[in-house]
Task: structure prediction
Amino acid sequence: MTAVKRERDGNIGILTLNDPASLNAMTPELLGDLAAAIGEMTGDATIRALVLTGEGRGFCSGQNLKAFQSLGNDIVTGVMTHYWPALRSLRECRVPVVVAVNGVAAGGGFSLAMSGDIILAARSASFIQVFSRIGLVPDLGSTWLLPRLIGRQRALDLMLLNEPLSAERAKEWGLVRDVVDEARLLDEAKTLARRLGDGPTRAMVATRQLLEESEHASYADQFRREIEVQSEIRQSADALEGRNAFVEKRKAQFTGR
Result:
């Protein structure tokens, strides 16, 4: 059985975590196959956006503790070797990534959901940190991602108290874009991904990178950095098409170049 299913719908790639019996718990095999699947999909220039979701009743229940023990005593090397490539691939993906969360996103699964660009949630979805419940600290990027998405105080509340965050509350807090019926989740995610994929994806990815850089930059430095990126991106085929379409009063036809 493939750990991550690969499908294609037009210019959209769909990646599905495929271990429903464990609610898609993280293992080195699953994360390794996810990194490989992202590489395969984005290696195809005609793929313009990705959807990431989970098979069955849950998105990702977090770490498979038994599999985690197989990493040995050097946990840092094990995680950076087997887990980091997949999450980095999502954060640095050359196309926009929509995450469709069905059921639970717990612990590292919560981190995985946050690693995409936009989250859609089924009404059944819930998000929970769980780490302090077992005497651990959040990992796989949670302490970097969560406060940037919902603010420090709310992030700390979730991390210390381990209370599940419902899909509706996650929308209220700005973690997810929308909450939809379970049966419509994948279709809605594909519709959103197609909308992103039909856009100037190179500029969108550059926008994502600028936002991440801004977390560590002064206003003056970021002001300059925006113009530096702008001067580069304005030479792209999509920027030229966008300007021409504006002048000609027509809808732009972007190609991601």
Notes: The chain has two domains: 4-197, 201-247.
